[in-house]
Amino acid sequence: MSATKQWYKWCLDKGVPVVPSAGLKPDGQCTCGDVHCSKKGAHVGNGLDFPEVGAELKEHENIALDVNDSGLLCLEIGNIKAWNKLKERYDIPKTWSCFSEGKWLVFFDAVEDINVMWSEEDVSVRVSYVLAPPSKMPDGTRVKWLIPPDKPLAKVPAKLRVLMEAPKKKSNSREEDEILEVKQSVLRTYIRRMFFSQERKLSGQDRRDYAWDKVEAYNANTTPPLHKPLLLRIFDSEIRRIEALPAIPDQAIEAVSLFDGQIVDHLAYREA
């Protein structure tokens, strides 16, 4: 068993949220199959199709930690100067950490009410996936643990948590919550319409990419736009829900074609 598979199994056994990531084949090509891949061996999934924690790890694949709503909080530090400054200023304890893709990554036990948009000079919060050791990079180097996950996972230091806490809601928070709920509902409807507009025209990743481009442009024109991590979660959950539905019969396609070729909202039909 390869070192990567050993670590993958060990992480899963310990409850560490780890997923398969694209890796490098012996010929230097990415395992994703795209000969023009711009992030060879350094990305998770294809487009918006992400693997589940514990999915099968295939030959030559790397592994990644899921730091999005997974119980892990990950800080990305851009250089050694910023890392030393962070440790000194906020009394950072020893905790899981690694050197990945030219960055220092430090992990903490996730807590509620953290503002994921928080950052300071050369330090930010990662909200997606991070390559985990011993993943192999295109230059032949491997991601390395500085403090591996067989050591304790520390909590966010009090000094740092104060700065990272999400802003307190104002007195009109109920109204703001209602506005956000309506905005997300409208967005989900728009996602469905864009996805279904390509019924029998595009399929698979091409269809998802088309819908994502439209949704991202739509969101950019709203005031204020949703943050991208939230937008991604809404889009991904809606697409997964749609793709789990049965296919639309040819008769339905023919019927809606009588109305200028537009399918207003297939989801109501499909869930009937």
Structural write-up:
This protein has 272 residues and is of the alpha+beta class. It folds into two domains: 3-164, no CATH class; 173-270, no CATH class. Helix content is 36%, strand content 15%. The protein contains eight helices and nine strands. It has helices at residues 3-13, 80-90, 158-164, 173-196, 204-220, 228-243, 250-256, 266-270; strands spanning 18-21, 62-66, 72-77, 97-100, 103-109, 119-120, 123-126, 129-132, 144-147. The strands form two sheets. A six-stranded antiparallel beta sheet has the order 6-7-3-5-4-9. Strands 1-2-8 form a three-stranded antiparallel beta sheet, with helices on one face. Residues 255-272 have low confidence and may be disordered.
What order do the helices and strands come in, and which of them pair?
Elements (H helix, E strand, L loop, with lengths): L2 H11 L4 E4 L40 E5 L5 E6 L2 H11 L6 E4 L2 E7 L9 E2 L2 E4 L2 E4 L11 E4 L10 H7 L8 H24 L7 H17 L7 H16 L6 H7 L9 H5 L2
Antiparallel strand pairs: 1-2, 2-8, 3-5, 3-7, 4-5, 4-9, 6-7
Helix pairs in contact: 4-5, 4-6
Q: Structural class of the helix and strand makeup?
A: alpha+beta
Residue runs with pLDDT of under 50 for 5 or more positions: 255-272
Cα-to-Cα separation, first versus last residue = 49 Å
Instruction: Note the total helix count.
Output: 8
Q: What is the global morphology?
A: globular
Mean pLDDT, as a whole number?
Answer: 80
- Approximate helicity band: 25-40%
| Percent strand | 5-15%
What is the alpha-carbon Rg in Å?
Answer: 22 Å
Biggest sheet layout: 6 strands, antiparallel
Main-sheet strand order equals 6-7-3-5-4-9
Strand/helix succession: HEEEHEEEEEEHHHHHH
